[in-house]
Each structure stands twice: as structure tokens, then as C-alpha cells.
């Protein structure tokens, strides 16, 4: 290991390398989850040493107020066994100290604990409150496991700063072709059911993935989604060419009001689940196969309204075949059927990625799984910080879309046809906290 590279920096590089390799996102998320736990614990150990010596790495004691005697002298490997498997940490070694350094986090001889997962989750989700983190450490490791408040602040402060900067950043420089919207539910208020965390991510005009926005909401109502989308507009986001989402009524209504010029694609996977839920088990395989055959487009067909009409006829044929046997399933596919084929107007090389919104659900699922360790989250701010920490790291590994010359020309023509002249989302240019202005929905977005 190079002399000036700390173990925490090495772990951060390893996390970035996992996503840079591409491949299966679910496997990458699991690997990053393990490395993330290792990173947090390693950071805690190194922060304890900084607190013990009273100075940062390579800081001279003579130039630092309240510095203690002693210096860092490398590391030794320590393996801690958890319920998810062993975690190897680089325990700092010291020499020349007036007293022996003993980690309050792990003590002298800790080699196994079944509560480290609770420690990791608790530290992340309670990271914005020093007192809560101290309580989480005490709950996980006992009263002797508590670390000083300055150590807690040092570990958690960077997470808070990064999240606050991210949620306030300017979006005016981002131009999207595709905007994906989704919500996932978490419990973080006492005595109430799970509440949604709404998320927006997209693909820009260069084919690059972008994590756009994240916020909590009281429900998936039209007003909740409108408020979220208007907030993105306040920070400069313009209307995308197409919005991809599930069939939540409040979400659809908000998109139609805030982004009336954008094409709206309904997630085909969500629609499949809705349809198959109305079909008996003995017919599931057959109906499912025929559903997906609708969207199996012959190689010779080009993007455009002709292909859209071709698939719409297939939908009608599917409905005619099953209307007597499963009328509720047929009503399901015919409801808002135009939104099932908008993706066919886009470049063919994008079809497989833009006809559904499911790739982020794996990350949401990973977040929910880890939340189960502590049950209800301790509050709204803690909930959204955990979700952001997971999604922000996952976003490093999101794959973009292929960009071809012909595809760029097609998208450019669609932008001129659908979005010209460009305009901001409702709320654009308004300072945070000022009252909303009246807008004309038809001309408010481009």
C-alpha cells in the first residue's frame, strides 16, 4: 500500500472500481454493501485514532493545539465476524504514546458480533444526529462501545455535507432525453403506515445516466408529485423528451400537468404485473408469453408512428383473444394503452432500456432489506439520507445508452417537434420559499 494512501481511501477506490466494471447491478450492489460496511467501520477506527492523538494524519504535534504524545505506526489486520460474513479491518498502530490506545468501538479482543449490521445501518440512517449515533453504538455494542461525540461528528459530517450539497445543486446544465420517476415506501413516523420516498433519474442527451432528485412525500398524490417536480424546476431542470413511470394515478396526473409536452411511457413490467394479477395461475404462462410477444418487434421495422400503430394493433388482437376469458385483464391492458408504445418513437437501440423503470427497484429493494435490521427508521431526514446514500453510490454504476449518429438525429427531430420552443418547468427561477406563480400548464414546459 502506498505510504500516503489510507485504508479508507483504498476502500473508496474499490467501491468505485466495482461499478466501473459494469456487469450485473444486483451483484454489484451486494458487493458495495459489504465494502460500505467495511468502509464505515474502518473510518470509525481511524477517527478514533485522530481523536486520541488530537491531530490528523501527518499533522505535526508541535504545530497542533492540544496534541497528545505519540504517532501513527502503520496498521495490523483484524478480522471481525458478522452475520453477513467476516470483515477485515486495518487496525491503526501507535507508538510513543503516554497511554495505551484501545478502540472504544471494538475493545481489545473483539472478533465476533451479531450486531455490527445494526451498527452500520444505525450510523448511516442516524448520521445527521450525533446523539442518535451515540445511542445506536451503545445499543449495538453496550455502554462501553460508545465513542466520543467529536468522533461521531467526524464520521458523519461528511455524509451530511455531501447530501445537502447534492439536494441543492443547480440542474440548469442538465438536458434530459429520458426522465424516470418512481417511489418506494419506508416507515419513519411513529404510528403511521409506510410513506413514499420519490426519486427522479434520467438519461441526458449524451446518453449518460444522471441521478436527478430525491425527496420524501406524504403520499403518491398528484399534489405531492407536482411539488416534487416543481422543485426540480426551481433548480433549473427543463422538460425531458419522455417520462417513464409506473401507472400510479397521482404520478400520471402530475406529469400531464407539469410536463404536458413530454411523451409518457408506462413501464411495461409494471403493466405486466397488473395484468397477470387478474389471470388464474393455470393460464399465467400462456398469457404472459403472449403479452411480451406484443412488444417483440420484427428486425426490419424502424422507430416511428408506423411501428407504434403496428404494436397497437397487436394490443387490440390480444384484447380480442382474451376478452371473454379474462375481461378484467383485458381492461387492464386497454387502459391508457397509448402510453405502452411511446418508446417505439425513440432510437431502436434504446428500446430495451426505456420501456420500463425497473432497474432502480433493485437498489430500492436493497435499501428496504437493510432497513429491516432496525425496523422503523428514526425520522424523515434519516430515512432520506439512507436512501440517498445507497442510490448515490449505485448511480456510479448505472449504464448509459448507446449514442449513434442516426439516433441523435431522430432525437433532435423529436425535440424540435415536441418541445420547441424550450421552457422551464413550473417554478423555474423562483427562489426557495417564495410563493408559486400562476402558470399556464400548456406552455409551462418544454
What can be said about this structure in brief?
The protein has 446 residues and is of the alpha/beta class.
Please, could you describe this protein's structure?
By secondary structure, the protein is α/β, with parallel strands linked by helices. The chain has 3 domains: 7-160, no CATH class; 168-267 and 357-446, Ribonuclease H-like superfamily/Ribonuclease H (Nucleotidyltransferase, domain 5), CATH 3.30.420; 276-355, no CATH class. 46% of the residues lie in helices and 13% in strands. It is built from 16 helices and 7 strands. It has helices at residues 7-20, 25-53, 116-125, 130-141, 149-167, 222-234, 249-258, 268-276, 284-294, 305-322, 327-334, 351-354, 359-371, 380-395, 405-419, 441-444, and strands at 71-82, 85-95, 176-186, 195-204, 209-216, 242-245, 263-266. Strands 5-4-3-6-7 form a 5-stranded mixed β-sheet, with helices on both faces. β3 (176-186) and β4 form a beta hairpin. The protein is elongated and about 85 Å long.
Features:
about 450 residues; about 45% helix; two-stranded antiparallel sheet; alpha/beta; Nucleotidyltransferase, domain 5; 7 strands; five-stranded mixed sheet
Biggest sheet features:
5 strands, mixed
Name the beta content range. Answer: 5-15%
Total number of distinct structural domains? 3
What CATH architecture label of the largest domain applies?
A: 2-Layer Sandwich
- In the predicted model, the low-confidence regions spanning at least 5 consecutive residues are 109-130, 431-446
Average pLDDT figure: 77
Count of distinct strands:
7
- Rg over CA atoms, rounded to whole Å, is 26 Å
Give helix % range: 40-55%
Strand order of the largest sheet: 5-4-3-6-7
| Structural class category | alpha/beta
Annotation field: number of helices = 16
Order of helices and strands: HHEEHHHEEEHEHEHHHHHHHHH
Distance between the termini: 52 Å
- CATH-assigned homologous superfamily of the largest domain: Ribonuclease H-like superfamily/Ribonuclease H
**CATH overall fold name of the largest domain:** Nucleotidyltransferase, domain 5
